[in-house]
Amino acid sequence: KRMKLSNQSLFQQKAYINGQWTDADDGATFDVVNPATGAVLGRVPRMGAAETDRAIQAAKGAQAGWAAKTAKERADILMRWHDLMVEATEDLAQMMTAEQGKPLREARGEVAYAASFLRWFAEEARRVYGQTIPGHQADKRLMVIKQPVGVVAAITPWNFPAAMLTRKAGPALAAGCAMVAKPAEDTPFTALALAQLAEAAGVPAGVFNVVTGEPETIGATLTHSGDVRKLTFTGSTQVGRLLMRQSADTVKKISLELGGNAPFLVFDDADVDAAVDGAIASKFRNAGQTCVCANRVLVQDRIYDQFVEKLAAKAGALRVGPGTEDATDIGPLINQAALEKVQSHLHDATAKGAEMVAGRGHDGLEGTYFAPTVLAGATREMQFFREETFGPLAPVVRFSDDMEGVALANDTEFGLASYAFVRDLGRVYRIAEALESGIVGINTGLFSTEVAPFGGIKQSGLGREGAHQGIEEYLEEKYICLQI
Ligand code: ADP
């Protein structure tokens, strides 16, 4: 089945290298499947090392000219790219729902969120200020200038096919870097549509390239290349570790947004209804497939039963179905492997004594659908406590005092996001400061915005995206010492 698009040129089944729509050298392709139906949506080139090298060389060739433009010139192009994205909202949303599965409402929200990074970094481009330093000797004048790092490789995941790309391409291009991007195999069409819009916005050939194909080969080529000066990656911790290791030989700058295992704490002075709404928003967005989704819900004794009952009622009322239907809250999971992981966490938990108080998992559902499921009586001995579930399964663990809650929350190698619902102001500060994560949401289940720094500590990654910090990741500082 074809996607319904008003601008069919957004649907590209070729990679984009040096301003050219390009096939693999040997003509090989792979299929992209709609997770809601299992139907093949189209195919894209299965590229390898040779094509990736050509993309790197194209970026290298375009790098100096792009960096030499004024910040305003680059900003104007990024703003046009933003405007074209916003104009194409409906087509991009249809495309994301088709290849990723999220409800159209969420897909439209993602287009706005994704475009916001282009606008923000168009604005930031002109605020890349250097520094002058009082000299250490009377005849010395010291200054620091900021320059683009050079060619950037970006590897992006399938869960936010547009936003995870613009969050990298926006600051990279704003800073004056050229980029080679490799989108996830499940969702390449959104990235290719963005390339089409970039070209229409006036991004010069070679400045923004998209290669599709074998992740291992493309990843190895990008990381081993001395011409690639920076790697920015969003995806699993396992692949992040591998890419970090591969980048060591060429001492690349790296930014990594890796897995999370977000604790969602509810303390006994919390507004329980607000906490339930926050948990629903955090846990079930994109069917639980975001790296900041609540993975472990931790609730204090005194309000535990009340919270579980209310959460079960709300989660049980969420509607499961194809993202194309207006009523849908929860679309399909991305693929069979994702379904199996969520099922294994469910089976492990119930085998160890957790009780299903809402939802029935995958039972009675087709394809990769999984009903929002709430587990009472969950404990730290269960698999979900160690690993990110990445699906609509909400295990609720009981804790007694504040310090135990925080200790449970921090008992993980990950440190991306945490949530706490708590009202006493002293407690708010103590808890927010004690939580080991790059992001803390207090009394809210939603915090993502282009204006704030997003990123993790511990094994959730390196660097920050968005905010002013986001552009610094693509800049090098150069100290100039002048004798007068
Ligand atoms: P997930 O488990 O969510 O799919 P991955 O880390 O596997 O997360 O995928 C995120 C991105 O990393 C995707 O674009 C994927 O193609 C890419 N990827 C997976 N394996 C490798 C690899 N060995 N080298 C480079 N990129 C990879």
From TrEMBL:
<dbReference type="GO" id="GO:0009450">
    <property type="term" value="P:gamma-aminobutyric acid catabolic process"/>
</dbReference>
<keyword id="KW-0560">Oxidoreductase</keyword>
<dbReference type="InterPro" id="IPR016162">
    <property type="entry name" value="Ald_DH_N"/>
</dbReference>
<dbReference type="InterPro" id="IPR016160">
    <property type="entry name" value="Ald_DH_CS_CYS"/>
</dbReference>
<dbReference type="GO" id="GO:0004777">
    <property type="term" value="F:succinate-semialdehyde dehydrogenase (NAD+) activity"/>
</dbReference>
<dbReference type="InterPro" id="IPR016161">
    <property type="entry name" value="Ald_DH/histidinol_DH"/>
</dbReference>
<dbReference type="Pfam" id="PF00171">
    <property type="entry name" value="Aldedh"/>
</dbReference>
<dbReference type="InterPro" id="IPR016163">
    <property type="entry name" value="Ald_DH_C"/>
</dbReference>
<feature type="active site">
    <location>
        <position position="257"/>
    </location>
</feature>
<protein>
    <submittedName>
        <fullName>Succinate semialdehyde dehydrogenase</fullName>
    </submittedName>
</protein>
<dbReference type="InterPro" id="IPR015590">
    <property type="entry name" value="Aldehyde_DH_dom"/>
</dbReference>
<dbReference type="InterPro" id="IPR010102">
    <property type="entry name" value="Succ_semiAld_DH"/>
</dbReference>
<dbReference type="GO" id="GO:0005829">
    <property type="term" value="C:cytosol"/>
</dbReference>
<dbReference type="InterPro" id="IPR050740">
    <property type="entry name" value="Aldehyde_DH_Superfamily"/>
</dbReference>
<comment type="similarity">
    <text>Belongs to the aldehyde dehydrogenase family.</text>
</comment>
<dbReference type="InterPro" id="IPR029510">
    <property type="entry name" value="Ald_DH_CS_GLU"/>
</dbReference>
<feature type="domain" description="Aldehyde dehydrogenase">
    <location>
        <begin position="21"/>
        <end position="479"/>
    </location>
</feature>
